[in-house]
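Help! Submission page says 'invalid entity' but I think these are all valid:
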Amino acid sequence: ETGVTQTPRHLVMGMTNKKSLKCEQHLGHNAMYWYKQSAKKPLELMFVYNFKEQTENNSVPSRFSPECPNSSHLFLHLHTLQPEDSALYLCASSQVGSGSALNTEAFFGQGTRLTVV
Amino acid sequence: DAKTTQPTSMDCAEGRAANLPCNHSTISGNEYVYWYRQIHSQGPQYIIHGLKNNETNEMASLIITEDRKSSTLILPHATLRDTAVYYCIVRVCTNAGKSTFGDGTTLTVKP
């Protein structure tokens, strides 16, 4: 248990469906992140949120829409996905801005395994 | 983030020390060395990080060379549950979740 919970753990969706991935962190962190890990590929950073504001979008297609209603919750809304979007989607959180290297590590959830059919 | 180079794979006998190397010759003065591992199909797990001094915690030890161009993660008594992909990341300490993960080293601990 890392303090970062992702639901669902597994999701199968059709290309015309709309679904959402949820992430919740219980660590009091002020930054949250979405990563994508396709088969046999390194983790790719998708979005960064600091203090609920999106500070980075790494050229992610608009069919992925993040939402951060508060510093503890992060969503990834999915619509009209393609089969190549099938991957493990990972959420992470960390504390930023302390000016110290202490407690600066990121904590990851267990991920949502997404299959687009 | 500075670029890192790690071996693709390594084997280790159960109960022995696992020494995982990482080269980061372009590391900047304010960049730290972070290590994470990812057990199959799970989220990455933080292991340890350091700037220039050697560090030790309950999971591992981190040895950083004096010129900081390379480091070694040491798992003192590897178990089968340590089989995972190990990532060496070099970055500043702020915004630690914004990391560049490479291919890492696949460590296989064998009985």
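Support: the input was valid. A stray whitespace character was the problem, and the output above is from the cleaned input. The interface with chain A takes residues 32, 34, 36, 41-46, 49, 51, 93-104 of chain B (CB under 8 Å).
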